[in-house]
Design goal:
The structure is a single chain. This protein is α/β, with parallel strands linked by helices. It is built from 25 helices and twelve strands. Helices cover about 50% and strands about 10% of the residues. The strands form four sheets. It has a six-stranded mixed beta sheet with strand order 6-8-9-10-11-12. It has a two-stranded parallel ribbon with strand order 1-7. Strands 2-5 form a two-stranded antiparallel sheet. It is globular.
Length: about 625
């Protein structure tokens, strides 16, 4: 007999057993009192699971995906020696198209009509594309089924702001900050938990700010920040197409020149002759080279010489002559574990009694004042720029696709300064990183505090109903309902192919600590689709989009979003015609992105015969660098 209901015979049974086991273990009872009492009971529970934050607790999701990994690998291994390999490799590369084929197979089968109705909700026409629709489609795509099961077993249903706070606490990159969460009381209710976290963050902010203020290397940090701000401001002006006056352009160039000079002073204020500072010396060489190139470009702009473009080239890490520098720069994202002891000499304090590996001289104090101001007025210092060619300035700061510009070279210098800072002072690098995360956590803590009243006790029956809107859940039920039925063998096989594809997406997500899925829309011009989302450090988010079109061929797009507004775009097409089509519409695309409040820092387009869209040159941070 065919089961025609969609009550998750597999998932339902598992959830009820897990819920029963958890209730027995915890000694908890169902809440049968009034709504107010139930809400009070939900908010009286502690919010922070410190074992989970520290990564010592294996979640149900990880257990399930681990089992899934073993299942698929065992199947593939056994298939290598038998006739099962072709069957095991039956997947649905164009999942949306396969769902439509399955819907056709279900037509006329009254016993399976409920499944047809459920599946029809998952795949929408591309004309209905919308941010909200994509988000909901991904949520119901099947790759989050195990996450939904885990959530249904929790005692509380938490508002989105609190979930976001807990997620960021769990994924914090600073180990010291993560360990500080252990100081939170174990028995606090929700309101006090948020209050305790706020107090802890204030304490951590003060501690890390003191490390930054007392660091002898903060001049490097200030110089780097000044250059980054200059580059971002130039990008914003260029992308928004604002008309600049000659006075404003002169003002900007003068401050850029001043920032470059301060950057060089900051980098050269330390004695790096020690054999252990080989990496630091290589990075400083790059800083001086980049600063000199920038200064040469500015001098040519002063003289209205069009040769300034020759100095806006980007550093090529593949150059064999720069092998030492390439190795040094590759380490900049991971501050060294060993601490460098320093001897700081100033006119006020003299020498400290530490062993000397490098020295900071008094000139460092002057370079600590490096800053970039967008509102400064034209001064005598800027007279050397007052006769610049305004059209040349616009050309130097243009953000046209694949075109080197002034802000790209400034960013290169800023990142080299940051690399030097991280190499010389892991304490400062760690404090800076922690401070940025603390600011973000503090904002989320305030939002979470306002959401406490929305915490509700979980309702198991309601959770089961929500699971019915999940693609994998429906397919599991359809597969079970059609097994051992000769008349529905084609439907059973189709459901299995779709499940295999969803599980492959789950495995990829699990392995790369990301979220990989398919586009939940059908499009006759599209052969296949693949979407990946990943969260990086310091509020950075990445998306990778791979599409295969019937007419235009393949395209790979990688997006990197920082601070919710700065966007890096790298596009790689399967043929030159498609690339030229994209290039012809680039201005319209960038204008549309700007209208959404996004600042396009970098925009790169190439054919697949060129550089990989996922491994493009270093000034685009795109987060995807895993090879298998």
């Amino acid at each position: 007999m065919i089961n025609t209901s969609i009550t998750q015979p597999l998932v339902d049974k598992e959830i009820r057993e897990l819920e029963r086991d958890k209730r027995i273990k915890d000694g908890s009872q169902r809440v049968t009192s009034t709504k107010d009492v139930a809400t009070k009971d939900a908010t009286s529970k502690p919010l922070f699971d410190k074992q989970e934050i520290l990564g010592e607790k294996q979640s149900l999701i990880e257990q399930k995906l681990g089992e899934l990994t073993n299942k698929l690998l065992s199947g593939l291994k056994s298939g290598e020696q038998g006739p099962n390999m072709p069957r095991l490799l039956q997947v649905a590369p164009n999942l949306a198209s396969d769902v439509r084929e399955l819907l056709k197979a279900l037509e006329g089968n009254e016993k399976l009509a409920t499944f047809k109705e459920a599946l029809a909700k998952f795949i929408k026409p591309i004309e209905n594309l919308s941010p909200q629709g994509v988000a909901q489609g991904i949520k119901d795509s099947g790759i989050m089924l195990e996450a939904k099961i885990a959530q249904s077993l929790e005692a509380q249903s938490l508002p989105s702001k609190i979930k976001e706070l807990l997620s960021q606490m769990k994924n914090t990159q600073n180990q010291g900050l993560k360990e500080s969460f252990l100081k939170l009381p174990n028995d606090s209710d929700a309101k006090k938990s948020i209050s305790d976290l706020g107090a802890l963050l204030k304490e951590q902010k003060k501690l890390n700010q003191e490390i930054i203020n007392n660091s002898p290397f903060k001049a490097l940090d200030k110089a780097s920040n000044a250059l980054e701000n200059a580059a971002k401001y130039l990008d914003k002006l260029s992308n928004l197409g604002k008309n600049l006056s000659l006075k404003t352009a002169a003002n900007l160039l003068s401050h850029i020149e001043s920032s470059i000079q301060n950057a060089q002073k900051s980098a050269n204020n330390y004695n790096l002759n020690s054999a252990t500072l080989k990496d630091a010396r290589a990075i400083r060489e790059q800083i001086n080279a980049s600063a000199n190139e920038l200064q040469n470009a500015l001098n040519l702009l002063k003289n209205k010489d069009s040769n300034f473009k020759a100095f806006l080239t980007r550093y090529d890490p593949n150059n064999k002559q720069n092998a030492t520098l390439k190795e040094a720069l590759s380490k900049q994202n991971e501050p060294k574990a060993n601490h460098i002891r320093i001897n700081i000499q100033t006119s006020n304090t003299g020498s400290t009694p530490h062993s000397s590996s490098l020295n900071a001289n008094p000139a460092q104090n002057a370079s600590q004042n490096a800053s970039f101001s967008q509102n400064a007025t034209l001064t005598q210092e800027q007279n050397s720029f007052k006769n610049i060619n305004l059209s040349q300035f616009k050309e130097a700061t243009s953000s046209e696709v694949n075109t080197p510009n002034l802000q790209g070279k400034i960013t290169e210098l800023a990142r080299a300064l940051t690399s030097l800072k991280n190499t010389l002072s892991p304490e400062l690098a760690s404090a800076k990183s922690a401070l940025e995360e603390i600011k973000s956590l503090a904002r989320l803590t305030k939002s979470a505090a306002k959401s406490i009243g929305a915490i509700k006790p979980n309702n198991a029956e309601q959770a089961l109903k929500e699971l019915q809107s999940d693609m994998k859940s429906v397919l599991l039920n359809l597969k079970e309902s059609t097994q051992n039925q000769s008349s529905t063998q084609n439907i059973h096989t189709a459901a299995q192919r779709l499940l295999t594809q969803i599980e492959i997406h789950q495995l990829a997500s699990f392995a790369q600590n990301s979220l990989q899925t398919y586009l939940p829309y059908h499009w006759d011009e599209l052969n296949s689709s693949n979407l990946s989302f990943k969260r990086g450090n310091k509020d950075k988010f990445y998306a990778r989009i791979e599409l295969s079109f019937v007419k235009f061929g393949e395209i790979g797009i990688v997006l990197g979003l920082a601070e919710n507004k700065f966007l890096d775009v790298s596009i790689q097409t399967g043929n030159d015609g498609f690339k030229e089509l994209i290039l012809s519409e680039t201005k319209s695309l960038k204008r549309a992105l700007n209208e959404l409040g996004l600042v396009v820092n970098n925009f790169f387009v190439a054919s697949k015969g060129g550089k990989s869209a996922y491994e493009h040159y270093g000034d685009i941070d795109l987060g995807y660098n895993i090879k298998a």
